[in-house]
Amino acid sequence: MRVRKHDLHDLIQKKLEAAGLSEEHADGVAESLAFADARGIHSHGAVRVDYYAERIAKGGTTLAPNFRFNKTGPSSGVFEADNGVGHVAARKAMDEAIGLAQETGVGIVGVHEMGHSGALAYFVKQAADKDMVAISVCQSDPMVVPFGGAEPYFGTNPIAFAAPRMDGEPIIFDMATTVQAWGKILDARSKGADIPPTWAVDANGEPTTNPHQVNALLPVAGPKGYGLMMMVDILSGILLGLPFGKRVSSMYTDLTKGRNLGQLHIVINPAFFTSLKEFKQNIAQMVDELHATKAAPGFSQVLYPGELAEIVETDYAEAGIPIVKDVYDYLISDTVHYDQYDHAGLFAEQD
Ligand code: NAI
């Protein structure tokens, strides 16, 4: 099933409004999810609507949040999200960070007590579209073993980066700090397929190829990814006085309560460090040089980190965005949600 981006946006918005979200917030979430699907980040697109709708309908998302921005220093601030939808809170917080960076060269804004915010690429792009460099990090549910551990501690804690480029779209790199997203485990289960032993561990902390025995995910590149996910939790959790590590709320434990998550946006104004024109030209030159690098056997061309999403976005703009039939059928149905996520297990399965 192929859908145009604006049609997907409308379907998502209608469903979220039916669940009880305001028009403004439903539009904000729909924009972020349609952006993700349009760039091939299907794990953070329309597939999430059923879950969000259930949480909204059950009271775990504040419908009319008291969003407040507290400027805490010349370049810093905290955006109180009041457990409203994370996508909208993080977007507004990024606007504040951009404003600070435009004035002072740097803007660092923490988002305090928010809901799930989806694909972080969306927020860093906001800054790069205004000629800023941005990094955004956020907490997610504890489902990853620490390096050498047998039980989960950190979340899949993602890191996104964007920079403006001369005569082209900003470059955007956006990754979870795990080898694979948990959605890929579910996918393997549904297909009856094995998974590589590098993705996840069983209840003893042993690598497993059986997706049904997965008890936790593995950090990317062993101790290095483990270090990065710690860094993310410190920056978006401890720094903001929020629960951290295994105390971070689970997506499915209780859909009647807010998640109290944290996110940190760091925005840097290149014009305060070098010539903006030169900066953007050099980003473009770096991309050109990467493209011109001799490709290894099996590769047709070297891409810059994150370029795959750009390529996919161009293809989908032409051909439409592929949406799984079940997800599309749900979006066009009268069902608000399927009542299937509350107190589901770590990997979104019922206990
Ligand atoms: P991924 O593994 O699909 O891609 C990671 C990055 O590598 C992307 O920038 C992608 O464009 C780039 N990439 C992949 N293959 C490439 C290639 N051949 N050449 C050049 N670049 C390439 O992404 P992952 O780690 O599964 O994350 C997916 C999304 O999940 C992200 O948007 C992330 O922000 C989001 N996320 C959100 C969480 C939340 O709680 N809000 C938690 C975890 C992830």
TrEMBL record:
Report the protein name in the record: Ureidoglycolate dehydrogenase
- From what superkingdom does this record's organism come? Bacteria
> In its keyword annotation, does this UniProt entry include Oxidoreductase?
yes
Recorded source organism is: Listeria rustica
Query: What EC numbers are recorded for this enzyme?
Result: 1.1.1.154
Annotated keywords = Oxidoreductase
GO MF, any single term: ureidoglycolate dehydrogenase activity
**Which InterPro entries is this protein grouped with?**
Mal/L-sulf/L-lact_DH-like_ah, Mal/L-sulf/L-lact_DH-like_NADP, Mal/L-sulfo/L-lacto_DH-like_sf, Malate/L-lactate_DH-like, Ureidoglycolate_dehydrogenase
Family classification? Belongs to the LDH2/MDH2 oxidoreductase family.
